[in-house]
Specification:
- The chain is of the alpha/beta class.
- It folds into four domains: 200 residues, MoaB/Mog-like domain (Molybdenum Cofactor Biosythetic Enzyme, Chain A); 53 residues, Molybdopterin biosynthesis moea protein, domain 2, CATH 3.90.105.10; 108 residues, Molybdopterin biosynthesis moeA protein, domain 3 (Beta Complex), CATH 2.170.190.11; 81 residues, MoeA, C-terminal, domain IV (Beta-clip), CATH 2.40.340.
- It has nine helices and 30 strands.
- Helix 1 packs parallel to helix 8 and helix 3 packs parallel to helix 8.
- The radius of gyration is 33 Å and the shape is elongated.
- Bound molecules: ligand LQZAQKY5 and molybdate ion.
- The site of molybdate ion has 8 residues, from loops.
- Pathway: Cofactor biosynthesis; molybdopterin biosynthesis.
- Its EC number is 2.10.1.1.
Length: 471
């Protein structure tokens, strides 16, 4: 760690970068698994995929029309159409070997249908009379209504060159080509290719399962009646949504009351389905700060390394306790606002990473963006861990003039204010709402964080600031 700050209390203060560094050092990319294509969406491929069969797998028509020998159309024109005998239909899905197109002949062919032997080009139906004996048509009549269209004669009004409107075998990808490199993120186009070459599944790093758990005896769930002194639990919703947005599978656990035993039991229950645990609230210095109490006590009771390394040993009951008591969570004070009190560590038999975020709604959300989102993305094996950061000119809030009170920032802390960003040639950002970490209304209207560095005590309108784009 590069820098530390001693506070008046003598307690060490961590920088944002130090805390993030520790988290990213501790979390590991998840073990790869084979997932069905749609479950693999957004995941990182860990295998190099080669093409087993050429695409297209056979020469086929790119138009609805007539498969012909190009030479037969050489002199065709509106004034003097080439007249060819129609020997049948080739529909998509047919094997393409039933018909052979000889000189003076044509087969009616549909888009994607295999080129019949003998034919070397396709005349789009719009360049023909469609077998009607009149002028050029705009479309074929449905086979069910006009079965005679697959026979008779067709007048071709324009010449085609060999291979016209033919998609050749291997014209897209060839057998043996590298379809996708390991490390590719599977978006819809990559899933298109994998399915097109016949792969039902791919080997990827899975999405982490993130359990979001809020704490606080004051919390009611949306939809319930609020009793005196209660507020609605917004953190567990906001962070479950943020976890999904980061790429995780999120499990939201409703609020746990400020009781250490209940919290421990809940965490133990959740460990089974968690690759990462996130809690909110209860990490400050109050008498009911339950997360700190529950996990500090556990860490204090921790058994020696050897014992913790073998959670399966011992009598029933004892096992579970050991597993849980393997927790080590480091509660820290960070030089940032909001988001000062933070905790990070591991818990349970699998040493599941746990991040304990502060309870104030804006604090928990900003903390998530800065620490949990990169952790999730690192577990997915993604290269891009962070939100994009840009420089922008700081302007007064919408509706306010230059005389508006300028931004201030506590010295020694990195401040993250909510803002609205406008891109373009001269990017601009305006603060929205104040610095209070309870201001959810303003957060909901922000699409950016304005970053004022540790050394700054404020920022003047018109100055250039760093901006994190929330997307
Ligand atoms: N004496 C001190 N008091 C506080 C300090 C300090 O240094 N000394 N730090 C303040 C800061 S900064 C923060 S941030 C908070 C963090 O406190 P906790 O993490 O212990 O969070 P709680 O006390 O549980 O809650 C804080 C606040 O947020 C509301 N809250 C909590 N959970 C939710 C939720 N799921 N949905 C909506 N709102 C929630 C809660 O009701 C409180 O108002 O501590 C300061 N205090
Ligand atoms: O640091 Mo607290 O997270 O400002 O409100």
């Amino acid at each position: 760690m590069s820098s530390t700050t001693e506070q008046a209390t003598g307690a060490r203060t961590w920088s944002v970068a130090e805390h993030l560094d520790d988290i990213l050092t501790a979390v590991q990319p998840l073990e790869p698994i084979e997932l069905n294509l749609l479950d693999a969406q957004g995941c990182v491929l860990v295998e190099q995929v080669t093409v087993p069969v050429a695409l297209p797998p056979f020469d086929n028509s790119s138009m609805d029309g007539y498969a012909v020998r190009a030479a037969d159309t050489e002199k065709a024109s509106d004034a003097s159409p080439a007249v060819l005998t129609v020997i049948g239909d080739v529909a998509a899905g047919s094997s393409g070997t039933e018909l052979t197109v000889g000189p003076g002949r044509a087969a009616r062919i549909m888009t994607g249908a295999p080129m019949p032997p003998g034919a070397d080009a396709v005349v789009p139906v719009e360049w023909t009379d469609g077998g009607t004996g009149g002028g050029p048509v705009r479309a074929m009549a449905p086979h069910s209504a006009s079965p005679e269209g697959s026979g008779g004669q067709v007048r071709v009004h324009r010449a085609v060159t060999p291979q016209a409107h033919v998609r050749t075998r291997g014209g897209d990808v060839c057998a043996g080509d590298v379809a996708l490199e390991a490390g590719t993120v599977l978006g819809p186009p990559q899933i298109a290719l994998l399915s097109a070459i016949g792969r039902p599944a791919a080997r990827v790093r899975p999405r982490p399962r993130v359990v979001v758990l809020s704490t606080g005896s004051e919390l009611a769930q949306p939809g319930e009646e609020l009793a005196a002194g209660q507020i609605y639990d917004s953190n567990s919703f906001a962070l479950a949504a943020a976890a999904r947005d980061a790429g995780a599978i999120a499990y939201r656990v409703g609020a746990v009351t400020d009781d250490a035993e209940t919290l421990r039991a809940t965490i133990e229950d959740q460990l089974i389905r968690a690759d990462l645990l996130v809690t909110t609230g209860g990490v400050s210095v109050g008498a009911y700060d339950v997360v700190k109490e529950a996990l500090t006590a556990v860490a204090g009771e921790a058994e020696p390394e050897e014992a913790r390394a073998e959670p399966g040993e011992g009598e029933d009951g004892e096992e579970e306790e050991r597993a849980f008591h393997g927790a080590h969570v480091d509660f820290r004070t960070l030089a940032m606002q909001p988001g000062k009190p933070q905790g990070f560590g591991t818990i349970g038999p699998d040493r599941t990473p746990i991040l304990t975020l502060p309870g104030n709604p804006v604090s928990s959300y900003v903390s998530f963006e800065l620490f949990v989102r990169p952790a999730i993305r690192a577990m997915m094996g993604l290269q891009e861990l962070h939100r994009p950061t840009v420089r922008a000119t700081l302007l007064p809030p919408h509706g306010a003039g230059e005389e508006a009170e300028q931004l201030t920032s506590p010295e020694g802390k990195r401040q993250f204010l909510r803002g609205t960003y406008t891109g373009g040639e001269r990017p601009e950002v305006r603060p929205v709402g104040g610095a209070g970490s309870h201001l959810i209304g303003a957060l909901a209207h922000a699409d950016a964080l304005i970053v004022l560095p540790e050394a700054a005590t404020g920022a003047a309108w018109g100055s250039e600031v760093e901006v994190v784009l929330l997307g």
